[in-house]
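subagent[fold] <- orchestrator: predict structure for attached chain, return tokens only, no commentary.
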Amino acid sequence: MGFSTETVKGPIRRVVATAQNGLEVVRLGGLETDLTTSPFEVVERRPMYRLRRYFPDTDPAEVGPPIVLVPPMMMSADVYDVTRDQGAVGILHGMGIDPWVVDFGSPDTEEGGWDRNLADHIVAISEIIDKVRAHTGRDVHLSGYSQGGMFAYQAAAYRRSRNIASLITFGSPVDTLAGLPFGIPAGFASDAAAFLADHVFNRLAVSGWMARMGFQLLDPVKTLKSRLEFLRQLHDREALLPREQQRRFLATDGWVAWSGPAVAELLKQFIVHNRMMTGGFVIKDRVVSLAELTCPIMAFVGEVDDIGQPLAVRGIRRAAPRANVYESTLRVGHFGLVVGSAAAAHTWPTTGEWVRWNEGMGPKPSTVDLMRYDEHFGSETGVSISDRIIHTVASVAEVGVGVGKGITGFASGAVRGTVELSGEATRALPRLARLGQMQPHTQISLSRLLAEQRRKAPNGECFLFDNRVHTYEAVNQRIDNVVRGLISAGVRPAAHVGVVMETRPSALAVIAALSRLGAVAVLLPPGREIHTAIRIDGVERIVTDPENLDAALATGMQVLVLGGGDLRSLDVEPGSNVVDLEQIDPESVALPGWYRPDPGLARELAFIICSESNGHWETKQITNYRWALSAFGTASAADLDRGDTVYCIAPLHHSSSLLAAVGGAVAGGSRIALSKGLDAERFTEEVQRYGVTVVSYTWTMMREILDAESLDLLGNYPIRLFLGSGMPQGLWRRTTECFAPAKVLEFYASTEGDVVLANVAGAKIGCKGRPLPGSADVRLAAYDPISGRLLEDDRGFVRECADNEVGLLLGKAGVHGEMSGVAMRGIFAAGDAWIATENLFRRDADGDYWLVDHKKTVISTARGPVFTQPIVDALAAVDRIDLAVAYGIEVGGRTLAVAAFTLRDGRPPRLADVAEAIEALPFGWRPDIVHVVDAIPLGSSFRPNADGLSAAGLPKPGTRVWYLDSTSQEYKRLTKAVAAQFHDGSAGMSAGAR
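subagent[fold] -> orchestrator:
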């Protein structure tokens, strides 16, 4: 074999070329190319941004529709112009589009850059849309890559799509917890993001090199592959030059720093709470939801994108139900969506065609389809197994590495359940432990918990009202100011102060201010006759709002007015006993020596809740311990945390609002959403805008929502739970069917003692559940509802009820109960202490408790006691029945049990259906009369009220009135003849039936 000089020269030339090119890369950061970028001018300069307009010399007559391109927060604006021939702006300009690019600069080189937060970016984009609209006279097509697309969604929602022709995003996740990189469990990711936001990024920013390294580590196989390919081809300059600009951009030039506050806010709102999906994210002080988007949307989906995973990107389909949402898919990773040959061949031409189609300048792009969204399970990411295998194996084959990434999917699936379960436990256990450690002298109150939340998270979101958010710092400052006003008006600790206010921030502030002062808030329903309640509870003065001022003045007491701001005026006579708290300067009020903030002890009275029931006033005295029991118990049973928004549609003067909704939210650190009133249209709007996850209710309140024609539940709604008390069984079924998979958490709380039952599982509709951990132990005592006496055994102790036997519910008296002086001793054992409730229950074989009746509403008939609740529950099982009540009437010298019901759709059910439902009851528990009524009155808490029907006596005979024939034990139509027999006392007896 002969020796040839060419065999030596070839390797030498390769080595020399490699050395020369390598030296150039070391000295200059890359290879010098002849490729150019597109021309632009900076149209607007602001501290937050510079607005670039590309190809500014274009003939105005040829300028097309404007498109604004938003870069991610951590990436240079040059991502849209890496090269002129393959970059976004060059291709779009060539298609007749007018490209504008937002340049946020780098925080480390901009004045105040390190203090930028997320809202600054969103507001800046909104401002840019206005400027481009003013400059061009046309609506804007808003687009963004990765996080820039998230900005675009948020800015469009912030503007409610005003002046936005369409939205275009590239690999922008919306459901951030649906497709996490590497299959990371959502619970773990959420906790990790919360830790980083609270303890890292509030002190540390992310520099450009950190951003670059972080993204490269998200796909280490691809990063290593590209570097090895570059080294293998370093001798071949011509082969490297076409992609050199792209390589330099992704390797070094394309990365900018992130400001710490912006990263922390992004993690909090969109990772921890996933509020792009649920709604309720906050821009400045406004609450925003993607559900308000109405403009056309197109999202580019990378089939092998492990950062903006397909499921996460397709979340926009559910998050924006009112918009027409399209997608275009291509088999690339995250960066390949906007940079490289695939982007030049697919992404940007399709974007141009989309713009032209929406402007009526061309046909619909062939690569664009309506977006599909499939329900997913926690382990799915949207990147198919086959795609992932092909993509990963190809990379591994080329590079020769890669095992760890595949293993993480199996590991995450194995621990997912454990992580999420332990998360619930870590939230519940400290709350229950705190309840267990509480003694009568322990300091605990509503205002103290609010102060604790302020210390933990001063900028945390406390409550939402009228589309505005109020932080813990602002709320506590308002409370402190109201306290000074109350002190100047003469309010002292332990004073009873009436509160007559509509649901509004000032109402919550005054209730908390009285708690902070150590006074007792007596909560009175607005618009009612309040003289009797005021006399009963020894109210010394009244706090009201301008809307209820006249009613408060009619009492003749001193009236303190709060709400409406300091610019409004009051129309009152000079010299009247009215103090306008809004006009008092808090700084001018000197705090007296006796004032100590949040002095309330567990044993002390905190609230008196007044309500009208059966034509008379009832009062519930709530101690600080009783309030804390409900607050921590609700937070534990409902698993409330900072990611929840609790929607309080019940008025604040109702116990379910103050104890369960407000109390549970404050104890759990959740947001409270206050509503102006019960309205289906407002309900739909606020649930989606606020991102409501938990809705509080009372009795039949949800019926007003479900029956409204304006109820609009398009697409995604974030509700997971309804909590409250008194929901009828039929309404319970309707609610869970309409809002599936949401559940109902039904509570029972005794007026006296510390009994709290909760149906946490929600599987048994109508059941009150079991005692909450931390509440009193309960037992059912044998009880004669006719005589009102407890039944004793042969040893003289009260007999405990067997399963399914009706008895009086007793709660074990703890330290707090014994101090109240209402405990009974020696009930089931010598020396024990129990507190009787007012309600009769039965306990099923599983240990769950079912409400049977109130002691005062049991119907005493000749057949024995008839309980009202089982009748109502039986009728609720009939589809066409809406509301039902049971009550007693006196006819012909005896008491009859009557059941009345209303119809849902106007059509009465068949008598056979009604009879079949009632026949499930023992014969002695069945009503004597069943009839259809046009309406059943509802009380202020939406509780059905039978007083008017009872006063009307025996229903008039008709085709919708039936009576129980005691001989045949069947229901028959009530005729005039049978009605006459009832009046003379013979109907219903054997002779009368014959």
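orchestrator: received. Logging for downstream: The chain has a mean pLDDT of 83. The first helix runs from residue 6 to 28.
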